[in-house]
Amino acid sequence: MSGPATGLYAPLPDLWDDGHAAGLDEANLLLYRSNLLGSDLRITNFGGGNTSAKIDEADPLTGETVKVLWVKGSGGDIGSMKLDGFSTLYLDKLLSLKSVYRGLAHEDAMVALFNHCTFNLNPRATSIDTPLHGFVPHAHVDHVHADAVIAIAACENPETLTHEIYGDEIGYLPWQRPGFDLGLKLGDLAAANPRLKGVVLGGHGLFTWGPTSKACYATTLAMINKASSWLAANSKGAAFGGAAVAALPPEARRAAAAKLMPEIRKRISAGERKIGHFSEAPEVLEFVNSRDLNGLAALGTSCPDHFLRTKIRPLVLPLDPAAGNLDAVIAGLDASLDAYRADYAAYYQRCKRPHSPAMRDPNAVIYLVPGVGMLSFAKDKPTARVAAEFYVNAINVMRGASSVSNYVGLDEQEAFDIEYWLLEEAKLQRMPKPKTLAGRVAVITGGAGGIGRAIAARLMSEGACVALADIDKASLDETVATFRKTFGRDAAIGVHGDVTDEAAVASAVRETVVAYGGVDIVVANAGIASAAAFEDTSLELWNRNIAILATGYFLTAREGYKVMKDQGLGGSLVFIASKNALAASSGASAYCTAKAAEVHLARCIALEGAPLGIRANVVNPDAVLRGSKIWQGEWRAQRAASNKVAEDDLEEVYRQRSLLKRSVYPEDIAEAVYYFASDLSAKSTGNILNVDAGNAVSFAR
Ligand SMILES: NC(=O)c1ccc[n+]([C@@H]2O[C@H](COP(=O)([O-])OP(=O)(O)OC[C@H]3O[C@@H](n4cnc5c(N)ncnc54)[C@H](O)[C@@H]3O)[C@@H](O)[C@H]2O)c1
Ligand SMILES: [Zn+2]
Question: Ligand 1: residues whose CB is within 6 Å?
Fold first, then answer.
């Protein structure tokens, strides 16, 4: 191969901006460099790697200038971290720990001592990688998990290749779990070889250093680029042995994912409800369609960061896209998953130590499907998505390593010792209790409207993933964008469509399943209001109410119900009907009748759904003026006219009409929906909850 490399091995661009950097102090330069490095997943995976600087600071105790080590703290991600993500330690105190270190058997005890070195009462927990930065006698140190470098580090001959690529610029240390001892070795190597620019760690990644933030950044990029161009120039043969099968067309891939995901979710959600993620990136398809898929997947991942997120190996499902055996794959899922779990249990038994924590969830995280792509499952959407991103890193590593040498996965016992490391277990134990709707997926029609938005926000605040379906595209896009800012990029998707269109509703539910792996909660809410004297009610107006309200709720509920049934995890359907579903109101016969139909439909579903654990309940709002688009148009004018008041006085009219003399807000409706959506109401089905501040005409009976 000749000419500049492209794609996976294209050179990383130097993004350093001197103008921007000129205004920054040392700590902010470190942050700037960290964010630049973390912005490209080829440089380091999400949450992977760390950066540091040794900075002169005034000691708050003495006023004297001391060297302070700023180093990324435990957790966090260098791409998105802020200054508070760094821990700060007195460098001389950290170095003095060398005198109390008692050897490899006492590694874990050193972590507690890092706290004694804290500078300026910084509460950020110190990472176990801290000695790897502190003991290197250079001002700035980067540690990244670059795919191209790990590809070299995961070959069977990493030391030889490191020398071949880098000459004596970069040193080599064999695989060893990060900690105090590795920090000592790295520091010694750097001290003995002042001209070294860094070190490749076998099976792990890259350390680089420099006298300034800018120089350190430049060296990190240069060393990754060297590995990339060497890989590009030396790769032999087709990646992964060439294609064994052809990918299905995009539509068919999504359809297959939509069928498979609830089936997998049903079988792996016993301990905790799982959320799924589907990926069909080109590098994923190239791998899952390749001849070497089974062989390479079985070897497991190499970088510890990768397998902590993905488990040591994925589960390959035996789909033959040409034969179209998806149903057979689903029929065989129990056996495939049982075999994976048995294999994982055997690994646990082979490797466990006397004090190892109990075996964790033995289900696979990553599922590879030839012709279709990759599915991943975890306790929430960000974790499932990040696991998929990590497996893409692992694919890139296997691609690079197997094209120039033989790829080697991490030794099984080492992998186990990291996975079941007591410090890692302590981190898991410290995790906050999951929210009440964690792992649940909700579809909300009319999600861009006043009540729909409030429902979505309430469910997301309890940890649910939400798909908003709405016919109003502009409002939908705006709502989803706002929610992603508040609740995170993974919390919500928007599906544009008309609830009266059977195919559109089916597609909205399918898109939800592909986005999150299944459906647990369906809130039928999309609606309109209309008014007309009975004799003036046109067939068009009548049909419109029946279509959007009765039929729309029917289609939405039926499509969600089908997924819930296949998924076998129960579910909750919540209908937003109306006070007018129970109380006849003059001048709105079409609306009232359609709303009454919704209530009766919910009861019918409650009957059929009960044996499946699928509940159906109704929330009846009344006079929710704030935020509602219904109350902005013609309806508002008509209601004001029929009450003989100004439009602005309507809210007060309805307040006075209620028994409790209170206004009803979208958040009040959302609270009732949350109750029915969650397990709080596990024993309620076929019920109605009025949220109308009290109205005798609509008392349920
Ligand atoms: N606001 C109230 O006082 C009140 C009282 C009783 C019942 N309700 C019911 O509550 C629900 C929500 O009403 P809201 O007050 O939030 O109104 P809203 O107009 O603010 O929201 C309704 C949403 O549904 C969407 N929608 C309408 N037709 C659709 C279709 N065919 N397909 C997909 N989406 C469609 C709209 O675009 C809108 O975003 C409705 O069913 C309504 O009948 C409201
Ligand atoms: Zn690392």
Answer: 445-446, 448-452, 470-472, 475, 498-500, 525-529, 548, 552, 576, 578, 621-624, 628-631
